[in-house]
Amino acid sequence: MKAEYKVELYTGIRPTGDLTIANYIGAVKPLVELQKQGAKSLVFVADMHSLTDNEPAVANKFCREVVADYLALGLDPNKTNIYIQSSIAYQVSYMTMLLARHTSVSELLRVPTLKDKLKNTEHPETANALLFLYPVMMAADILLQRAKSVPVGEDQLAHMEVVRRLARDFNARYGDVFPIPAVQQVKSLRILSLKGTGKMSKSVPGGAIFLTDDLAKVAKKIKSAETATEGVMTDSLQSHITLAKELCGDPAVHLNIDSIISEHLEGKQVMGVFKDLLATIVVDFLRQFQTRRAEIVKDPSYIDSILKEGASVALANAESTLDLVRSSMK
Ligand code: TRP
Questions:
Q1: Phi and psi for 43 in degrees, rounded to 5?
Q2: CB of 150 closer than 6 angstroms to any ligand 1 atom
Q3: Any idea where the domains of the chain sit in the sequence?
Q4: Which of the four, 57, 85, 237, 272, has the lowest number of CB atoms within 10 Å?
Q5: Which residues share a beta bridge with 150?
Q6: Is 32 exposed, middle or buried (CB count within 10 Å of its CB: 0-12, 13-18, 19+)?
């Protein structure tokens, strides 16, 4: 019984600043909901992965910011341990090397995220080798912590294939070392740009609502967002409905939204009413978030102590896994 799980739910988040409301609905909220189901969970900020695009100092700077964001969005430190990946940098790096030995160059060259990146950069010959090792480093994270289930978005599925293949091959060679992690695909709701075309994204700031946006500006952005002609359901309207319902869980408000939308579909002129409601919902949500976040960052020792505890859990798991790995390779 070597290959025991240590963590039920495990995932990594990127240290990027400026989360949008679409990031919240697509990535943060599903994680917060999974955590509520009571599993023992561990979440980390993948600052070493983000060295693919950032200087170490930049990656590091955003770590605490993103932790503050996630805590203010509902991640509960009593249920979830949180650590920064680089606080166990030695273990992650060493494990990455050991696993890289069992990964072929051709397998990594076939990973679609790498292929797309190379295709879409002007100078593919300058792409760095860390990009290439990305899935192997993910395997190091997950296998070190002996994770049972890994919730990830669709974009990470190909990486998870490499992780599971590595765990199986390593076991086949050295014995029952790693428990095999299950992939839990998080269904991601698509929130569109307020400008009407494409996904809401940071790169089109006018069509995106940021969690840090000024509340008066948010209300204006929503009022000038794309609307649907009476009687017609559009992708953009559907996205607004999703946005409203995801941000406000009150069933009475959901009924109100449904009745406004059925009036709209009957041809009545109610888009103004709907937008007012949407603006109220978004502004209320952001106000609560911003208040909670300000509270959280007021005392820096609060986040320090959460990260310290998380790091000690992650380190203990990683060291005991490495002991097992070393002894199985003798
Ligand atoms: N690659 C993930 C992302 O870009 C982050 C990540 C790194 C991760 N290591 C992981 C996710 C291990 C789950 C498990 O979002």
A1: -125, 140
A2: yes
A3: 7-190+300-329, 213-294
A4: 57
A5: 183
A6: middle
Report mean pLDDT in 10-residue bins for the chain, 330 residues. 86 92 94 89 96 89 94 96 97 98 96 91 87 97 97 95 98 96 92 88 89 95 90 94 96 97 96 96 98 97 98 98 95
Report the catalytic residues.
117, 199, 202
Q: Into which CATH architecture does domain 7-190+300-329 fall?
A: 3-Layer(aba) Sandwich (3.40)
Q: Report CA(180)–ligand 1 centroid distance (Å).
A: 16
How many whole angstroms from 314 Cα to the centroid of ligand 1? 15
- 80 within ligand 1 shell (Cβ under 6 A): no
- Residue closest by Cα to atom 6 of ligand 1: 12
**Do 43 and 70 touch, CB atoms closer than 8 A?**
yes
- Rounded Cα distance, 8 and 22, in Å: 26
CA–centroid distance, residue 308 to ligand 1 (Å): 21
pLDDT score of 197? 77
- DSSP assignment string, 195-253: TSSSB--TTSGGG--BTT--HHHHHHHHHTS--PPTT---HHHHHHHHHHHHH---HHH
Please state, in angstroms and rounded to a whole number, the distance separating the CA atoms of residues 48 and 27.
20
Is the beta carbon of 59 within 6 A of some atom in ligand 1?
no
- Separation CA 29–CA 75 (nearest Å): 9
Res 1: pLDDT:
47
